[in-house]
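Ticket #4471: structure export looks truncated?
Reporter: QA, pipeline team
Priority: medium

Steps to reproduce: submit the single chain below to the structure queue and open the exported record.
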Amino acid sequence: MGFWHELAAEMNRDWYMANKDRYDALWVQPMTALLAEVSTKIAPLYPGAKLAAPKIMRIHRDVRFAKDKTPYKTWIGASLRLGDHNQPQDGVTALYLHFGIDEDFAGCGRYVFEDATLLKWRKKVADPKLGPEVAKLVGSLREAGYDMHAHDALQRVPKPYDADHPRAELLKMKGLVASFPEMPRGIIHKPALVDWLAGHCKAAAPMTRWLKKHLG
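Actual output as written to the record:
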C-alpha cells in the first residue's frame, strides 16, 4: 500500500514514470495473476459463456470534465467480464476487484445500465414471470449479507409503471450489483483470497447468469 500513499503525495508524471515498473511489479502483475486464478475456478459457473481475460483499469484519471485535476488514481481496479471487452460498456462483470488507500472491495453484476439496456431491464422486472425471478435472486443475496445496489436509482417509479408496483425498488434501479461482504483482515496477502473471491462469485452467479441471459 506504500506505493499508493507515495503516489498520492507526489501526483506528478516524473515520479510516476520513475516508479512505473514498481507499480507493474507490485500491483498489475499480481492482480492479473490473481484474477486469472479466480477465473479458472469460476469458469464452470458459466457453461456456454466465455470469461474474458482479466482487465486492469487505467491508472490515469479522466480529468476532462472533472474539477479534481489530479492525474492518477490512488487505487487499482480490475475485472473479469462475461464476454469480451469489446461488448457494450454495461456488460456483465463476473468479478470486480478494487484495492486502494480508502477501501478494498469486490463485487459483481452490472454497475450501470445504458439507455437501451435500462428499458429492457424494466420490461423484464415488470414481466410476471421474469420479475419475480430476479426479485427472489436479489432478496436471497441481500439476506445472505450482500449489499445490493446500483450506479444510480430514481426517487420515483418510472412511468408507465405504477408507484405501488410490487417490484418498485428494482424498477427504480439503473444497474444491479452485489457487493461482497467485507474482506477478512489481512487476506489480500494470503492464497486464501482466491477461494474467498471464488466462493462469493459462486454465491452471486445465479444473479449474473440472469443478467447475462436476459439483458445480453
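Status: closed, not a bug. The export was complete when the record was re-opened. Leaving a note from the reviewer for reference: The longest helix spans residues 192-215.
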